[in-house]
Amino acid sequence: MPPVRSKEGSSRGARAATLQASWSSSPREHSGGGKSLPVLALKGLSPVADDRRAELGPRHQSARSSQIAVKNAQNHSFTTTVLHICRRVVFLSHFRRAGSFTSSMFCGCESMRAHIFGDSHGNYLFARTENTVLHCIPGRTMHRVGRDGAADMLRQIQPEPDDVIIFVFGEVDVRCHMLRIATSKGLSLQAEADDLATRYITALTEAINYFPHRPKICVMGIVPPIDPLVPNPILPNVGTLAERLVAWFLLDKALAARAHQAGYTFVAIPRSYHSRDGSLKRRYSDGHAHIAKDCTEAAVRAVEKSLGISLGFRPLPIWRNMLRAATRQLAILNKDYAVLWTLGEANVDG
What is the distance between the alpha carbons of residues 152 and 231, in angstroms, rounded to a whole number? Predict the structure, then answer.
């Protein structure tokens, strides 16, 4: 015997069936084509939508795939950021990575290379980048480049039109030579800084003019001085920290002015690395003179933003970054120079 259905249930099922039939068959206005199409066609489930996609061809499908990839990347970055906020673990790098990832997907940076010329600071600042080629000589000074020229240094490369050349010099001059040379010449620090920056930028320009096409040039600011826990016997500090801070400030400003006059991009060391007196924060250093290799993200991002390129920076995992920061802080409290040096010099990948 078939089940008996109540009048209320029958009327409710009839109304649902009527509503479903009217909704699926009623036309809706399509904003793009200006024609009345069924709802199913708008969702791409009808032959009309399939025919239209076939007419547009593979180029439209490729563009659509690219848009979907960007959207997925944005959704993933947004979800990751929300999770970190909920866990109260938020770093500025999380927001920067999301923007740099989506902006570099279609910027054509795959063939670009950045050639880094400088002293040991070039090796440290760009140690965690993939789109760079390092040509750095520890101990090389800005004074030597201005005196001997940069032709021999740049002769080892043949840059492509999209390549970038980044110069990182000056910290050794501030640490070891400026105060001594200014005193021996009877000049003020301002005069010595202006002369050194002028000779340096002039030597770079003369060497760059030999290239068949002029690449994009970036001049990095000078890493601020610091009092090391253990003096360096090979390149010792000359003068007090206050005197070296004055020399650094004057040379950095002179370098920025000469670089802008020559049409080069000048990228200063971000303020996040500076303590209140202007010196390098010890917790971002290797305890000697450099910005630690695992603390260079802010400097690299500043270069990327100024030049509009991606250098392929490889950030450490969050847990490893926090562990190294805690270990570094303990080493500072214990004045353990060996641990600071090891943490700052080691290029650890996680």
Answer: 32
Residue 170 region by backbone torsions, left for phi larger than 0, else alpha for psi between -120 and 50, else beta: left
CB distance 164 to 112 below 8 Å:
yes
More confident site: 136 or 25: 136
Task: Please answer whether residues 317 and 345 qualify as being in contact, where contact means their C-beta atoms are separated by less than 8 angstroms.
Answer: no
Looking at the DSSP bridge assignments, the partners of residue 133 are 115
- C-alpha distance from residue 120 to each of 49, 127, 247 (Å): 60, 11, 20
Residue 218, SS3? strand
In whole angstroms, give the CA distance from residue 93 to residue 100: 10
Q: Which residue from 341, 339, 226, 228 is spatially nearest to 281, judged by alpha carbons? A: 226
Residues 300/125, Cβ–Cβ less than 8 Å: yes
DSSP 3-state of 61: helix
Q: Tell me the three state secondary structure of residue 266.
A: strand
199 burial via Cβ count (<10 Å: 0-12, 13-18, 19+): middle
Nearest to 274 by CA among 283, 265, 266, 287: 283
Closest CA to 130 of 336, 315, 326: 315
The pLDDT of residue 229: 84
pLDDT digit string (tens) for 46-62? 444 444 444 445 444 55
Distance CA 280, CA 223 (A): 7
And the tokens for 280?
Answer: 């390098």
Total Cβ atoms within 10 A of residue 342 = 14
pLDDT at 257 over 50: yes
pLDDT at 203: 97
Contacts of 185 (CB under 8 A, 6+ apart): 192
Region of residue 94 (phi > 0: left; psi between -120 and 50: alpha; otherwise: beta): alpha
Distance between CA atoms of residues 78 and 11, nearest Å: 47
